[in-house]
Amino acid sequence: MNTICQHCGTPVPPTRSDGFCCSGCRSVHDLLQQEGLEQFYDLKSGLNLPPVPAQAMRQQDYGWLETATLAAEGTRASEDVAAELSVSVQGLSCMACIWLIERVFAKLGGTQIQVDISSGELRMAWQPGKFQPVEFARELQRFGYLLGLQRADGGQPRDNTLERRTGVCGAFAMNAMAFSLPAYFGMPADFAFAPWFDLVAAASATLALLVGGSYFAQRAWHALRAGVLHIDTPITLGILAAYAGSIIGWLSGEPGLKYFDFVAMFIFLMLGGRLVQQMAVARNRRRLLRDPSIPEAEMLEALQAGASFTVKPGQAVPVAAKLTDEHASISLEWISGESDSCTRSSGQLLPSGALNAGTRTLNAVALEGWKESTLHKLLDARRGGDQRDLRLEKLLRGYLVVVVLAGVVGGLWWWWHTGEWARGLQVMISVFVVSCPCALGVAAPLADDIAASRAADQGVFVRTLGLWKKLTRLRQVVFDKTGTLTLENPLLTNPEALSGLDDDARQMLRHLTRGNLHPVSRSLFDALGGMPEQGLDAEVTEVPGQGLRCEHAGCVWAISRPQDAGADAIFTRDGQTLCAFRFRDALRAESVAQMEALQGRGLRVEILSGDREAKVAAIAKQLNLQREQWQHSLTPEQKAEWISCHEPQSTLYIGDGANDSLAFDAASCAGSPVTGRSFLEHKADFYFLGHSMRFMSSLLDIAATHRRAVHAVFGFSVTYNIVTVIVGLMGHLSPLLAAILMPLSSLVTLSLVALIFRRGGSVVKRYAEPDVVSEAECVTAC
After folding, report:
1. Cα–Cα separations (whole angstroms), residue 684 to 13, 148, 384, 466, 692
2. Lower CB density within 10 Å: C or N end of the chain?
C-alpha cells in the first residue's frame, strides 16, 4: 500500500519519509496546525487536493497588486466607501479552501470577501488603512494559494452565455410542461382556458427556440458552411421539425402535432448536457494564473532594436539583447532544457527566452524587436483545433439521409393511405423527433464530466474536450527530459546535512535561497520545508558564477561552489564551512514503472531533449530505454520536425519548457506539468500537479472507460432510434409517447454511463483510500 500525503491525499514519493508528497504540503499542514485551523481537513471531507505548488513557497513579486490597490482606493466615491478589487486565485479546489480564505481575510481586518470556486475569482472589499491586500496575498501564499491579476485564459472575461441560456430554457421548459399536462390528462378542447394553455405552451417553446435552439442552429450552420457535419445538425433538425409541426398543429387545431413541451424540454436537456461538458474544462483552465515569467504585454509590444529594458528576477529575457550590467546569472532551461545556470558579463549576448536566475533586476539593450524574437515565435504558436473525425462525419451523413428519407417517405405513405395530410405530417415529424440524438447529447457530456473528475483525483486537469478520444488513438508517448521526466529541481542526496544546522543557520540558509532561481537554491529552499519566517532584511548579493552571500548580525553567510569535487555546494559562515551539499537529477516517482507500463500497452516511448548527451543517456539508462528511444541536444524546431515525421496524429507529447512549444503544436495530444515557470500548461490538452508519473496509466485507463461508456451509449441510441422510428412509421408515436420516451431514454443512458464508470473505478483508482467521490459524481450529474 502506498503512503498518502497527509495534506493533499496524493501518493508520497519513495524519496520522502515524512508522510508528505512535497515540502509545500508539509509546510501548509504544519501551519494549519499552528494556527488552529485543523477544521480545514474536516471540511474537505476526504477529497483529494492539488499538491501545494513549489512556487507558492517562494518569494513572489506583488508589485502588480500594489498598483491595483492604489487604483482601487483612488477611485472611491467618498472616504466612507470601501475599496473593491477582483483578482484570480490559484489553488482553489473545494469548500474547505473558501472557508480557509475567509478566515485569513477576517483575521487581517478585511470588510467583505466573495470567493467563486467555479471561476477561480476572489472579490474583496476593505477600508484603506485597516487592511492591506498585499499582506493578505502573502498570508494566503503561506497556505498555498497564489493571487494573480489576470486569468490563465489570457484575461478574457468569463463567458456565461451557455449558463444563462440553460437557466432560461429550464424555466421555459417547466412552463411548457405545466401548461401541456392538462391536455394529456383529458382536459376537453372546449374548456374555457384551453386556448390560453396552448398559447402559453407555444410562447414558451418559441422563446426556448430563440434562446436555446439558436445555440445549436448557429453551430450546425457554421459547420455546414465549412463543409463539416456536426452532431448539432441532427439536433437542430429535430428541434425545428418538432417546433414547425407544433405551430402547424396549433394553428390548424390538430392536437396530434403539438410538441411544444417536447421542444422546450429537449432544448433544455441538450443545453444542460453541453454545459456539463464544458464546465469542468473551463474550471480547469481558470485554475492557472498568468505565467509570471513573461513580461507585461505593453512592455513587449514597445520593444524595438536599440531599446533599453529591464528584466526582473525570475522573468524571461524577451528578445535577444546585450547585457549592460557588469554580471548576470541566467538560465537556459527554457531554450535548451539545461537546468544549470550560467554567467554573462557586460556586453555579452542574452538569448531570447533566457531566464534571469539572479536576485537582482538586470539591464540590457535589445538587439531585435519583439516580433522578430524566438520567444515571440514560441509564445505565438497555437495548437490547432481537433482534427476532423471523418468516420463520424460519414456516419452522421448516412444517419441523416436515412432519417430524412424514412420521415418523408413514411409521411407521404400515410398521407396517401389515409388521405389525411395531418396524419402524414405527424408521422414524419415523430420520426424526426425521436431520431434526435438526445441520449448522446446528455450521456456523453456526463461521461466527459465523470472522466474529468476521475482524472482530477489523480492530479490531472483536463483542458480540452477532445482529450479522451485522442488518448484512445495513441501509438507513442514522447517526453521532454528536464522538469518532465525529472523533478523540477535536482535532488539533495544528503538531506541529513541540514539537520546539523542550528535555527539561526537554517534561517539564514532559507533567506539566501528564497526567491533565487538557481537549481541549487530551489532545491535547498524546498528541502528546508516549512519554518517560521523571521522577516530578515539583510540584502542578498550574488557573485555571478560563485554563489550568494549576505551579512547579518556581524557574520557573513554564503552559499558557494567548493574547491574540491566532493560536494556541489557549501554553506559557510565567516568563511567556515557549516555543511556541504550533493545533488543529482532525480526522476519523478514511479517513472520507471510507468515507462514499463506504457510499453506493456504496446505504446512506443521516446525522449526528445535539448540537454547534453551524457545527461540524457543517464536518465534513459535509469528508465531502461534503448539508444534509439532517445534524442539529445535538439532545438525546438528539431523536436517539432521529429514529431511531424513520426505519426503526429497518434502522439502524446509531454513537456514543460518553451523549447517544447513547437513540438506541442506538432503532436495531436499534449500535456504539461505545472511548475509556475512555464506557459505550456495554458495550451496543453491537460496539465498535472505533483511529483509522480503515476497518473499516466490511470489516465489511459480513464480514457478506455470513457470509450466503453460512449460506445455503450451509442449502441443503445442506435437500438432505441431503430425501434422508435419503426413505431413512428407504424403511426403509434403520439406527442405524449414522445414526451415520455425522450427523458426515459436519457435516464437509461445516464445510468449506463454511471454503471460503467463505477465498474471501471477499481481499475482507474490507484490510491489507497476508497473512492469517496464517484458515487456523488454520478448522483449529482444524473
Report:
1. 25, 20, 11, 12, 18
2. N
In terms of average pLDDT, the best of 114-123, 128-137, 449-458, 754-763 is 128-137
* Highest-confidence segment of 152-156, 292-296, 748-752: 748-752
Distance CA(635)–CA(639), nearest Å, equals 6
Provide the H-helix boundaries in 230-320: 232-252, 260-286, 297-302
pLDDT tens for residues 48-97? 777 887 777 777 878 889 989 999 998 887 888 899 999 988 888 788 99
Q: What is the pLDDT of residue 774?
A: 35
pTM across the whole model: 0.74
Contact assessment for residue 706 and residue 446, using Cβ atoms and an 8 Å cutoff: no
Contact yes or no for 268/173 (Cβ under 8 A): yes
The Cα 14–Cα 11 span in angstroms is: 9
- Three-state SS sequence of 127-152: CECCECHHHHHHHHHHCCCEEECCEC
Of 133, 144, 154, whose CA–CA distance to 62 is shortest?
133
Per-residue pLDDT at 154 exceeds 70:
no
| The 686-688 sheet, strands edge to edge | 460-462, 686-688, 669-673, 651-654, 476-479, 604-608, 630-631
Q: Mean pLDDT across the chain, nearest whole number?
A: 82
Q: Which of 438, 295, 290 is nearest to 355 (CA)?
A: 295
**Separation CA 4–CA 53 (nearest Å):** 17
Burial of 198 (0-12, 13-18, 19+ CB in 10 A): buried
Mean pLDDT across 422-449: 76
Inter-residue contact 100 to 34 (CB < 8 Å):
no
How many CB atoms within 10 Å of residue 546? Answer: 14
Which residue ranges form the domains of the chain, and what is each CATH number? 56-148 (3.30.70.100), 161-285+386-448+702-781 (no CATH), 297-380 (2.70.150.10), 459-488+588-693 (3.40.50.1000), 491-584 (3.40.1110.10)
- Angle made by CA atoms 548, 559, 139, in degrees to the nearest 5: 70
**Diameter of the chain by CA atoms?**
107
In 602-682, where does DSSP find H-type helix? 613-622, 636-644, 661-666
Contact 677, 355 (CB under 8 A): yes
Dump pLDDT digits (tens) for 583-615: 888 888 889 999 999 999 999 999 999 888 988
Give the three cell numbers for residue 358.
539572479
Handedness of CA 727, 732, 735, 737 (dihedral sign): negative
Cell 549576505, located at residue: 550
* Contact by Cβ (8 Å): 154, 286: no
Question: Which of 406, 697, 159, 350 shows the shortest CA–CA distance to 414?
Answer: 406
Residues across the chain:
782
Region class of 765: left (phi > 0), else alpha (psi between -120 and 50), else beta: beta
Record the cell numbers describing residue 579, joined without a space.
555543511
pLDDT digits (tens, 9 = 90+) for 731-781: 777 766 766 777 778 788 888 898 999 887 644 444 333 333 333 333 233
Mean pLDDT calculated for residue range 165-187: 85
Binning pLDDT at 50, 70 and 90, where does residue 438 land?
A: low
